[in-house]
């Protein structure tokens, strides 16, 4: 019986401590931390854009290969979707203007 009481008390202490920590505000960021966060956000955006371009190019290659294979079999296959702009000209990535 005493073991159960001790476990319940320990659980309540842990729960109360967790709730108290959850309500604390985040510490304010200094200039270095803000700069690091902005740099990380810019790197993540660039990596995401590169991944999108690579995905588009891979999809275009697969579609072209499928069409070529079907053409070799004598079947006529037309693309249902237009060729994507980034894959056609990967160097023409647009950068939004700063305000």
What does this structure look like?
There is one protein chain. The protein has 99 residues and is an all-alpha fold. The chain has one domain (2-78). Helices cover 69% and strands 0% of the residues. It is built from 3 helices and no strands. The protein has helices at 2-23, 31-72, 85-88. The longest helix has 42 residues, at 31-72. The protein is elongated, with a radius of gyration of 28 Å. The N and C termini lie far apart (68 Å). The model has no long low-confidence stretch (mean pLDDT 83).
Helical content band: 55-70%
Element-level helix/strand string: HHH
Number of domains: 1
Largest sheet: none
User: How many strand elements?
Assistant: 0
Beta strand %: under 5%
User: What characteristic shape results from the CA principal axes?
Assistant: elongated
Summed over residues and divided by their number, the pLDDT gives a mean of 83
Number of DSSP helices? 3
CA gyration radius, whole angstroms: 28 Å
Low-confidence stretches: none
Structural class: mainly alpha
Distance between the termini: 68 Å
């Amino acid at each position: 019986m005493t073991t159960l009481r001790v476990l319940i008390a320990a659980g309540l202490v842990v729960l109360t401590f967790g709730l108290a920590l959850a309500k604390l505000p985040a510490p304010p960021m200094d200039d270095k931390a803000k700069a690091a966060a902005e740099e990380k956000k810019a790197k993540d955006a660039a990596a995401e854009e590169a991944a999108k371009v690579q995905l588009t190019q891979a999809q275009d290659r697969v579609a072209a290969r499928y069409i070529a294979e079907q053409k070799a079999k004598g079947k006529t296959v037309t693309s249902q979707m237009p060729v994507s702009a980034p894959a056609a000209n990967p160097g023409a990535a647009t950068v939004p203007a700063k305000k």
